[in-house]
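User: Hi! I'm a student and our assignment asks us to look at how structure tokens line up with a sequence. Could you show me two examples?

Assistant: Happy to help. In each example below, the sequence comes first and the structure tokens follow. Example one:
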Amino acid sequence: MLAAAFAPGATVAAVARQYDVATSLIYKWRRTMRARETGFAEVVVVPDEPVAASVPAAPPAVIELEIAGKVRLRIPLTTPPTLAAAMW
């Protein structure tokens, strides 16, 4: 989202509308990203894959956040706490 908001020719307002977040939040994330040494981790949003009914799956060891019912962020439990905190 930050890369999209600050790409050449993009506007923060348009990206904020696209992701249903306040423009001030995007600016805050950018300030936070620049202030931290660890930075932000790249997040890739992919569609859910269907799970085969015959294969029982173990629940993933992740923290899952759903934003405005449109975006789901999964943070593995192996993520260092400082990096996970930077994603909030």
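Example two works the same way, sequence first and then tokens:
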Amino acid sequence: MTMKKTIAVTMMAAAISTAAVGGAYAAPGSASAVQIVQGTLNVNGMDTQVRTIASGSVQLVAVRDLALSLGAELGHNGSSYYMKLNDSTVEFKVGSKQITVNGSAQQLALPVLNVQGVNYIDSAVVTALGASMDADGGISTVNLLEAIDSAQWIGKGKLLASTYGEAGRTDYIVDAKTGKHEVLLVSVDTSDLAIAPDGARAAYVDGEGFVHILDLASKQDSKLGEDNSIKSELQWSADGTALYFLQGDKSSVVAKISAADGTVTKLLEDKVDYKSNLRVEGGTMAYTVVKTGKVTTDDKKSVDEDAISIDMTGTEPQVYFYNVYQGDNKPVQLTTSTEDKIFLELSPYGSAYYVSVPEEGSATVVSVNKEKQTAIAVAEGDVMQAVKHKNKLYVLTAGETNNLVYEIDLSSGSKKLINTLSDSVTSILPYGNQLALIEDGILYTFVGGSWKAITR
């Protein structure tokens, strides 16, 4: 038996908590008595009861109890029995150590045992059936979604995970506790889904520029209005009555579309191109602008001499602020610094936050207010990400040996360390008191006091 299989068997035996419930019975062909014990298995987050027999380090489980706990199909063909779970079928015979898994022979540590008319099988059969097990012994029978490209919270207990392929994008609704998932949308040339604040709807822009509203429960897809202008960075208003977006092939206009009737209203049309990172809070908005480089030519040289040069001075992204409801006002440029600015967020209390990435040195989180005053909000480690949820800003930084998560209260500006993570964590997804993360391309949630992979 390989070391990997040995560890799996040991974990499986340890996963069954037991309590004696009956007397000792003599097994057929055995000179020793066996003790039947009531055990508990945690399957997909739920405790289930199974009868067990311990033999040294090996735990035998009543076949019928195990099948019921896992939700596996149980049947027999003549003198042999089978259990089927998802795409795996295990066949076995009473008195034999040998099983076949999808037609391939494998060996169990002990033969299948019949005691008082009940068949007991080595608990290692759980992994042979394709079920997975976490570090705490919890069993998952779900075929986990593989190789996701992005994820976001839908609401309490559910996430949206997306995969991209040659045929387009597939969006899934994923249970945050078990990893059980279902297809929500398969689409081509569409924007990412924007989840409504109520978690009941999502919106996206199709390849022709039309906005669609998708009901997450019924999966009913409805086109919203008849406007098919170019739209990017679609996002919901806090009350769910409208969607904001950047309009035009150069993202020069900020507009909104009514979620009720599809009416489009332009909020800012200042003829400034290449807006991005749009963030809206009530009647205020923040965004960045990137100017194009200045092209110059030398008239004294021929075209063949490649005399064209581009001056990139002043093309660094700058943060702007705009109040929709303040009459006759213009956008205010809040920053002039030359470093890159990413992960822009807008506080409901008037300040903008962004990750400042200099050419040399570590990235930091910087706040800037309407008076153009800046302050460093997080300087610990090398900042990798900043993401806002309601009135909190969550920051992922790379420390010396671990990645760290800080929480900033946007009302007071106070900061505290809330989590220490592996240095291979690349993204965090906060939602209220819940936190998900992506590590090595796998989505994890915090379940029962430990991190659990809900994709693979």
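Here is something you could point out in your write-up. Residues 1-14 have pLDDT under 50 and may be disordered.
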